[in-house]
Each structure stands twice: as structure tokens, then as C-alpha cells.
Amino acid sequence: RTISSPPARTRQVWLSADGRRDGLVDDAGSDRFVLPGCPNGRAPDRDKQDRVIPEETHQCVAEPAYRTDLPDTADAMLAWLRRHASGNPGDINAIGKDVLDLAGAAYLPPRTLGALFEAASRLTGMQAIPDVVDGAGRHGVGVSWLRDGMRTTLIFDRNTHAFLGTSYTGMVDHGQNVMFGTALTRIAIVDRPGQRP
């Protein structure tokens, strides 16, 4: 579950461990939709109401939520992040988004998560922040980058390197400072989308 503020809202997301089964997003009860899985390289097409269209499919690639394919040392993770960079090698914003996706939307083994945190803190263009607060008011250490006047900070637990959430700060018209954050409040493994632990 992720909450953000202001205004506070809760989003619950169920992801398939192997990427082959459907997932689910429940956004504060106002929007609920399926995250299609990719069972055999083909996924069913869906209409605007998120209903399966019989006998219509498209090519897909399974995107597992449980990632065992990533490096578990900081040096190897650093090289992976620089090479991958969402198709934009060297772009710190693309790399930062990759770190966020891995930390906040994937289930990583502890060594991989530690490698991700250490690698992110060593990236050129990233700034280490010793004390920062997430959307739930929890303190942690952060790594941040600046893009178009907005600073994005990814916040991790000081001891376990578990991902806590984000903080966003920036300037808008007339010099007004804006700030909001998110918090990852729970991760659990369940048997099916919609099930709560």
C-alpha cells in the first residue's frame, strides 16, 4: 500500500511474482483496474471498461514483481543502472526512475536491495541526504536528484535499506515552495489479487 499527502490517499497494488498472472490496482477506492499478466507471450485485449475481448490478444513480455535477475553487489548494480537507464544511458532522471521502480514496485532480495541503495548513493548527479521524511512522517536516509526545478528524493531505512517512500520539493510561480511525499506502508505476499494479508 502506498499513501501520499497532501491530499492523503491510499493505493493498493497486487503484482504477479512471475509476471504471468494478472495483477490489480485499487486506487483509494475510486479507481480499480486489472494489470494484465503475460502467460505465454500473449495477453488478452481489453475494452475501455477493462473487460477481456474474446479471442483478441497482443504480444507481451512478462514483467515479474519478484526480481532475482538483478546484481547483488553495488559495483555490478551501478553498472546495470548506468547501462539500463530506461533506454537513456547517462540520464540521471531515467536512472532515478529505474531505482524508484525497483525499490517501490518490485520485491527484491535483501542483498539486491542493499546493492541498489548503495549504487544509487554513488551515482553522479545524485545527492545523499542524511535525514529526510517520507509521506507518513518516518525518517530515513535519502538519495535525490534535480530535474526542471523539482527535487525527487528516494527514502530508505537507515539500517535495513528497505524503501520507505519519496519526497518531492520544488518551486512554482511566484517562488512558492511545494512539497508532497509518498510512503510504502506494507509489502506482503498473498495468493491472489485483491486478497489482504
Secondary structure layout plus pairing:
Elements: E1 2-5, E2 9-14, E3 23-27, E4 31-35, E5 42-46, E6 52-59, H1 74-84, H2 92-105, H3 110-122, E7 127-133, E8 139-147, E9 150-156, E10 163-171, E11 177-184
Antiparallel strand pairs: 1-2, 1-11, 2-3, 3-4, 5-6, 7-8, 8-9, 9-10, 10-11
Verbal overview:
The chain is of the alpha+beta class. Helix content is 19%, strand content 37%. It is built from three helices and eleven strands, in the order ββββββαααβββββ. It has helices at residues 74-84, 92-105, 110-122, and strands at residues 2-5, 9-14, 23-27, 31-35, 42-46, 52-59, 127-133, 139-147, 150-156, 163-171, 177-184. The strands form two sheets. The protein has a nine-stranded antiparallel β-sheet, with helices on one face. Helix 1 packs across helix 3 (110-122) and helix 2 (92-105) runs antiparallel to helix 3. The chain starts with a strand and ends in a 13-residue tail after the last strand.
Helix-strand category: alpha+beta
The Cα radius of gyration reads 18 Å
N-C termini distance: 12 Å
Average pLDDT across residues? Answer: 87
Low-confidence stretches: 1-6
Listing every helix as H and every strand as E from the N terminus to the C terminus, the arrangement reads: EEEEEEHHHEEEEE
Give the DSSP E fraction (strand runs of 2 or more residues).
Answer: 35-45%
Largest sheet: 9 strands, antiparallel
Shape category: globular
Strand tally: 11
Fraction in helix? 10-25%
**Strand arrangement, major sheet:** 4-3-2-1-11-10-9-8-7
Oligomer: single chain
Number of helices: 3
